[in-house]
Amino acid sequence: TNTVKIGFSLIQGDACPDGITCILDSNVFIEDSPFDTDNLHLRAGSPAIDAGNNEVVSLTTDIDGNPRIVDDPVTVDTGVIDDESAIIDMGAYEYQP
Rounded mean pLDDT of the chain? Predict the structure, then answer.
């Protein structure tokens, strides 16, 4: 039997599993219907900005080729930091302030 572990995730719907850090918010992406337009870029003020876990990411760029860990100075850091000075965003695209 395999166990799936979810953490520091964006979850669509209205329930977050017990003991999991996730975001249930409709103001996350630039587009109101991101899955219809395939645009999963984060909007300014998104709760997913600086909310990821640096300890589990080894990539240095996001899906657009931008730096993967960029600090948004107006967003409170809520994720897990390691030896970096900024926290990675949740999702495939790093918000570029």
Answer: 80
Contact yes or no for 89/50 (Cβ under 8 A): yes
Phi first, then psi: give them for residue 18, nearest 5 degrees. Answer: -55, 135
DSSP H helix total and E strand total for the chain: 1, 2
Give residues with Cβ within 8 angstroms of 64, minimum separation 6. 93
pLDDT digits (tens, 9 = 90+) for 33-67: 666 677 889 989 888 899 888 888 889 999 999 99
Q: Are 26 and 43 in contact (CB under 8 A)?
A: no
What is the rounded CA–CA span in Å between residue 78 and residue 46?
12
Token pair belonging to 65: 């080729």
